[in-house]
Structure formats: structure tokens, C-alpha cells
Design brief:
This protein is α/β, with parallel strands linked by helices. The chain has ten helices and 31 strands. Strand 9 and strand 10 form a beta hairpin. The chain is globular.
């Protein structure tokens, strides 16, 4: 059942520079993940599963791929007034693009005025997680907060990577909100942890409108929700925190409930994929009670062919999507997206291979992220010789090779 009190805005304008070259032709929320999905599918699935069915996705950089995905995948029922719509930067408030996440909302206040909601969920578009926003909304209403910030517990030593939420003792009122502090204060019930912002918020509508309007008039502001809006509302005593440790989701295990990942670097992106193919993954894609939704391409089933001496089409400890053909090659600990073809005597090991890539006969791929439409020529070797790889491709700090979209890799 749709909740008519709530309007959702998903912030999908990030450039994703740390994920380059995967973001060379697409916005970060449009980056493929887990074989069939795009990163934005996780936030949208959580909102839609919770009955929040009026959603504006605010886009800006390289948004064509993202807009096409939303238009073809996220078609809710217009008969019931439900929608997910991409909203590109339109310069409604002057001759400038979005100057920050708060400015993105300010430039689209017309959307809020049109819907006239009581509450607004503002979610990020590029994290991998499963949560029920209704629980945060219920606490927000019960406490009469102006904004509620979703917080996840992280080790004290990682505080300098996040916006950190500090509370007054046992209270859920936020006493301070600090970006990447060097002197973090541990939680009263767990001194070795802090609450880090997950980038998801519930606002009372008039509080958000007032806050972004005041922020727009401040020339010294960076016009950022985490950097400007939340500290302002903290100072006004209007900000509360919702602790992700209290999250419950149908069908989710204890490990799954605590999972939230910012896959904003190549190594984080790669590691999150390797978790998916583990025997007992931290994040369960197979929870049908709270599904991660998308619209897979209309493709035939995956196919494995040849069973001869030294030539067996097989995939072990891997995820293989529709349209894949493993033709006498070997796939281990890898994720093959739709349309991938692995030819005879090829080896794909510890790899994330995106759509419509062709791995030629006798080729070897190890510890590599391969973007879409790549051709690996017969006999080519990637992830075998680190010095050769660095001369040809981007390589992450942890040694993961990345092959950009449309590349032809010669032997």
C-alpha cells in the first residue's frame, strides 16, 4: 500500500571519480552491480518495497544511461499515481547546475510543492544495502524531529572516512555531526564504535524546504546536505538519529541486516562482488521477501557446452546471468553479467565481467573488472603479469586490473 504522506527524492548526481574508468560513460548510480543490477536499484527497491511509490531521481552528470535504465525498469502504475521519474538538472533557479545535494533539492522545490507531502525521504543512489524506511519514518514521527539521519555503527578507527553522528548520552537527539573527525568519540554503549551517516534521511517537509531555502541564500555554503543542512538542523535541536542496528527486514539474516557498503572505490566494488559469490555471503541477493528489483534483459538461459578431455565448459563458485555461454572454458570465483561469452580453453578467475564481453579462446583473466562490450583476443593474458598490466590498464591499490568499456585486448 502506497504511503501518500511521503515523497522520496533519490540523489543520483554524483560523478563517481574514484570508480573510473567504470564511470567514464555513466553516472555512479548507473554502474552495473551483481550481474543483473545497477547500483541505484538497491535504494529504489528499499523505497518501493516499503510502499513509498512517488519517487524523483535527481540526476546531473552523464545521466543518459541512468535515465534510460529508470525509464525502462522502474515503471510503476500511473493509474494509481505512482512513479519513479528521473529529473535532470534544469537550471530552474538560475544559469547554473546543481552546486551540491542541498542545491539539487532547492532547484526542485516545485516537485515538493506539487506533491505537498508531510514527510520526505532523501536517499543516496549508490550504496548496497537492505532496509525498511518505514522504521526510520515511524521513529521520526514519534520524536517530532525535523530530520532523522540513518546511522550505521563502524569501528572507531574508520571514523575519519565518514560523517560521524554524536548523540547526547542515551538520547537519539544528535549533539554534533562532524565530517571525517580525527578525534571521534565512541558510543556510550559501545566505546569502540561510532555512528556513521549512511546518506539516508527522513525530513519533515516544511523543515527541509525552509533549510534548503536558507542555505541557498548563504554564499559561503557548499550547499551540501551532510556538510551544511544537517549541522544547521543539529544546531537548531531538530536532528535525530536512527540506529541501523535496530533495522528489521522480512527474510533477512542477522548478517544481512547489518550490511551497508559504499562501493565508491574500485577495490570496494570488487570486494563486494567477491562477497556475493562466497558460500555464506554477508549480503543475500536471494531474499524473496524483500527483493532487490530490476528488469533483466530478455535473453535465453545460460549455456555450458563441451565435455572433452581438457575442454570442459564449467563455472564453479560463480554467479552466471542469462545469455552467458561458457563454451569449453573455465570460470572460477567470478560474476558473469548477461551476454558474456567464454570460449574454449579460456580461464576466468576472480573476475567481475560486465555485459556482452567476449573472452577469446585460450585467454586468461585473473582478478580483473571488465566493463561492457570488451573483446579479449585469443591467447590474451590479463591479471598475470602486474608490470604488463600497469602499462596497459588502470590497476587499483589492491592490484585489481580494470578494463574500460569497449576495449579490444590483444594477446
Amino acid at each position: 500500500m502506497a504511503d501518500s504522506r511521503v515523497f522520496a527524492m533519490v540523489l543520483a548526481g554524483g560523478e563517481g571519480k574514484r570508480l573510473a574508468p567504470l564511470t567514464a560513460d555513466r553516472a555512479k548510480p548507473a554502474v552495473p552491480f551483481g550481474g543483473n543490477y545497477r547500483l541505484i536499484d538497491f535504494s529504489l527497491s528499499n523505497l518501493v518495497n516499503a510502499g513509498q511509490l512517488k519517487i524523483a531521481v535527481l540526476t546531473q552528470y552523464k545521466s543518459e544511461s541512468l535515465g534510460r535504465h529508470i525509464a525502462t525498469t522502474w515503471r510503476l502504475s500511473p493509474l494509481l499515481g505512482n512513479y519513479v521519474t528521473p529529473v535532470p538538472a534544469q537550471m530552474r533557479r538560475g544559469p547554473s547546475w546543481f552546486a551540491g545535494s542541498a542545491d539539487a533539492i532547492y532547484q526542485n522545490l516545485n516537485l515538493i510543492h506539487d506533491e505537498n507531502p508531510h514527510y520526505i525521504c532523501v536517499f543516496g543512489a549508490d550504496h548496497v544495502f537492505r532496509m525498511d524506511p518505514r522504521q526510520m519514518l515511524e521513529q521520526h514521527i514519534a520524536l517530532g524531529a525535523g530530520v532523522t539521519v540513518a546511522g550505521i555503527r563502524v569501528p572507531l578507527g574508520e571514523a575519519n572516512q565518514f560523517g560521524v553522528i554524536e548523540t547526547d548520552g542515551e538520547s537519539r537527539t544528535i549533539g554534533a555531526f562532524r565530517e571525517k573527525p580525527k578525534d571521534p568519540v565512541g558510543l556510550s554503549d559501545s566505546p569502540g564504535e561510532v555512528l556513521a551517516s549512511m546518506g539516508n534521511y527522513v525530513f519533515t517537509a516544511d523543515v527541509l524546504v525552509d533549510a534548503v531555502t536558507r542555505d541557498a541564500a548563504d554564499p559561503s555554503s557548499a550547499h551540501d546536505i551532510g556538510g551544511n543542512i544537517i549541522p544547521d538542523l543539529v544546531a537548531r535541536g531538530q536532528a535525530c538519529v536512527w540506529d541501523f542496528v535496530n533495522s528489521t527486514v522480512p527474510g533477512a539474516s542477522e548478517r544481512d541486516l547489518r550490511y551497508w557498503r559504499d562501493v565508491g572505490t574500485l577495490d570496494a566494488y570488487y570486494d563486494a562482488h567477491m562477497d556475493l559469490i562466497s558460500v555464506d555471503p554477508s549480503f543475500n541477493l536471494y531474499n524473496s521477501e524483500w527483493p532487490i528489483l530490476t528488469w533483466p534483459e530478455q535473453l535465453p538461459p545460460a549455456k555450458f557446452v563441451f565435455e572433452e578431455d581438457g575442454r570442459v565448459g564449467a563455472a564453479m563458485n560463480s554467479m552466471v546471468c542469462a545469455g552467458v555461454v561458457v563454451s569449453g572454458g573455465t570460470v572460477r570465483r567470478s560474476i558473469l553479467s548477461p551476454g558474456v561469452h567464454v570460449h574454449s580453453h579460456a580461464l576466468v578467475e576472480g573476475c567481475v565481467v560486465l555485459h556482452d564481453t567476449d573472452v577469446g579462446r585460450g585467454a586468461t583473466l585473473r582478478n580483473t573488472i571488465v566493463d561492457k562490450d570488451v573483446r579479449i583476443e585469443p591467447g590474451a593474458r590479463v591479471g598475470v603479469d602486474p608490470e604488463t598490466d600497469k602499462a596497459r590498464f588502470p590497476v587499483s591499490p589492491n592490484g585489481v586490473v580494470v578494463i574500460k568499456k569497449g576495449t579490444v585486448v590483444e594477446a
